[in-house]
Amino acid sequence: MTLITGLLLICLGLAGWLILRAAYSAHQTDWKNPFLNILDGLNRLFCRYYHHLHAPVLALPSQGAVLIVANHVSGLDPLLLYAVTNRPLRFLIDAHQYHRVGLTWLFRAIGGIPVDYSGRPEKALKVALQALEAGEAVAIFPQGGFVLPTQFPSKLKRGAFWLAQHTKTPIYPVHITGVKGMGYAVRGVFIRSRVQLTAYPPVYCTSEEEITTCATTVQALFENPAITAQKVE
Predict the structure, then answer these.
(1) What is the SS3 assignment for 16-31?
(2) ∠ CA(67), CA(186), CA(183), 5° rounding?
(3) Cis peptide bond prior to 149, omega within 30° of 0
(4) Range of weakest confidence among 16-25, 29-38, 195-204
(5) Which stretches are annotated as coiled coil (predicted)?
(6) Rg of the chain taking only CA atoms, in angstroms
(7) From residue 168, how far is each of 83, 104, 160, 204 by CA, in Å?
(8) 73-86 confidence digits (pLDDT tens)
(9) What are phi and psi of 224, to 5 degrees?
């Protein structure tokens, strides 16, 4: 080993140590796993400095069931929501994405819930229902797949609102804008953006009769996020 090679390895090792230290300091969600806590910090740094995300942490209750719903434009969206929460989120994930080679172990570790849209999607709703009844935080993209602003209107799937009604769980709507890689799953994560997340006061859906009203309210926020003066910047 030459002197230059040795110095290079030392520099790389030091840089890696500094990155891990910064990531651990940046994490805000306790995943009860040191490795996942480091990933949490790395994701926050990635979203903040690469995608220019400067949104505050969502004002969620520290305990008890919560349901986050957001519009869905790219594969970056889940990372953005992880970066603005301080509780572990259990995402409903398309089964095709869940079973991507090399990623299934990670989705399983963070409590992802695979949804088989071509088979029995109700199985995923049952798992999500159990998670909410256990006081966990669940995140859903009720548009299903990617829906770009030019594709409105797009009717929302009712699963999230059914879950809210059956568990009396508040819905926290979030609107995502500024993503440059709209329409892309993997590429959307790496195309640099200047993103903005707008969080709204919780929506309550306590009866079956209110499901349609809740869905209409959330859909209006997704299609025209400036319609309410109560948004939290």
Answers:
(1) HHHHHHHHHHHCCCCC
(2) 75
(3) no
(4) 16-25
(5) none
(6) 19
(7) 26, 31, 12, 8
(8) 999 999 999 999 99
(9) -145, 80
